[in-house]
Q: What sequence folds into this?
DNA sequence: CTAACTAAACCTA
DNA sequence: TAGGTTTAGTTAG
């Protein structure tokens, strides 16, 4: 498990990855030290033996390109942040949900219920909510673009203030 | 296996 | 808008 701390316009972010793809990308913290603590906590919380299978040979990962894209993102640019994700750390259901979320483009939004319907469980919105909450690769898996259909904007692991900030950055509106 | 959790949605008034 | 009901998957015991 590789780890690094990168600098972004919004602070310092910790990330970790395997030869398969990204595992963790945290939201920026004010200091590198804070970012490191958050990263360590995120890694400790990972399920034990990951089911990572097919490894992509060669190095897909260039820290500098991640750093550059994240910087563009916080600068308000419409970037896709399409980096590979190591899905081996999620349960089957979480993976199905998060892979849907992964496809949501910059500036777009969907609802928990819509994802549930896409997965064939039209009434599974609540289960989708708990699965989305397991996302560890923030921004890369844009779970902030998933909002509640009727009341409110749902929740967010990194705090609702962050969610509002990210949605505003992308010009996404929601009911409040 | 059950029961108590959810980052939801729906129904009624 | 507010409150209660329904709902599906995860997690703890």
A:
């Amino acid at each position: 498990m590789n780890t690094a701390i990168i600098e972004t316009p919004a602070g310092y972010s910790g990330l970790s990855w395997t030869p398969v793809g990204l595992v963790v990308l945290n939201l920026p913290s004010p200091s590198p030290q804070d970012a490191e603590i958050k990263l360590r906590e995120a890694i400790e919380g990972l399920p034990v033996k990951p089911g990572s299978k097919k490894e992509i040979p060669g190095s897909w990962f260039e820290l500098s390109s991640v750093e550059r894209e994240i910087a563009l993102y916080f600068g308000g640019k419409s970037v896709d942040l399409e980096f590979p994700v190591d899905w081996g750390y999620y349960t089957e259901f979480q993976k199905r949900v998060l892979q849907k979320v992964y496809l949501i483009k910059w500036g777009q939004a969907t609802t928990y219920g819509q994802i549930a319907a896409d997965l064939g469980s039209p009434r599974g919105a609540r289960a989708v909510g708990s699965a989305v909450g397991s996302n560890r690769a923030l921004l890369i898996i844009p779970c902030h673009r998933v909002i509640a259909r009727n009341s409110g904007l749902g929740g967010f692991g990194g705090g609702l203030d962050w969610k509002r900030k990210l949605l505003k950055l992308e010009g996404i509106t929601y009911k409040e």
Remarks:
- Residues 110 and 146 of chain A are 5 Å apart (CA to CA).
- The two ends of chain A are 40 Å apart (CA to CA).
- Residues 111-113, 116, 123-133, 143, 146-157, 160, 163 of chain A lie near DNA strand B (CB under 10 Å from a C1').
